[in-house]
Amino acid sequence: MTVKRILIVEDEAGLRQIIQFSLEAVAGWEVLTAASGKEGLMIAEAEQPDGILLDVMMPDMDGDETFKRLQNNPTTKDIPTIFLTSKASVSEQQELLDLGVAGAIAKPIKPRDLVEKICKILHWQA
Predict the structure, then answer these.
(1) What is the spatial distance between Cα 116 and Cα 122, in angstroms, rounded to a whole number?
(2) Pfam families of this UniProt entry (predicted)?
(3) 3-28 burial string, b = 16+ CB within 10 Å, else e?
(4) What confidence category does residue 116 fall into, taking pLDDT thresholds of 50, 70 and 90?
(5) Cα dist. 5→33, 41, 102 in Å?
(6) How far apart (Å, rounded) are the C-alpha atoms in residues 7 and 56?
């Protein structure tokens, strides 16, 4: 079984580290991190992760714009992307799903639940 590689694009350093540690400790995945949409685009293109966790609300380039740029790049358009959002309502999450992402996960979330949701959305074995 190959180890999954996942890219976290999150501007909040503390949260980025918590998510990284959670995915490494609970799932044993290799985790790449980016502090901005621009950095995330470069890492996604260079590293070709198996999936991307993308924060919706970021300065400069938000999650929507970052996702659109991922989709417009032939090298990154097929990487499944999951939005991380503080938007908890079903209608708000549906708006995000309508953009074409693989799924949306509401923050905050427990580490084990995060891994389970990612696996469910991306159809990975837990």
Answers:
(1) 10
(2) Response_reg (PF00072)
(3) ebebbbbbbeeeebebbbebbeebbe
(4) very high
(5) 11, 15, 16
(6) 14
- Six token digits for residue 109: 């979330």
Per-residue model confidence as pLDDT tens digits over 15-60: 999 999 999 999 999 999 999 999 999 999 999 999 999 999 999 9
Strands annotated E in the chain = 5-9, 30-34, 51-55, 81-85, 103-106
Sheet of 103-106: strand order equals 30-34, 5-9, 51-55, 81-85, 103-106
Amino acid at 125: Q
pLDDT, tens digit (0-9, with 9 covering 90-100), for 3-15: 999 999 999 999 9
Token duo for residue 111:
């580490």
In this model, does residue 85 exceed pLDDT 90?
no
Amino acid identity of residue 126, one-letter, is A
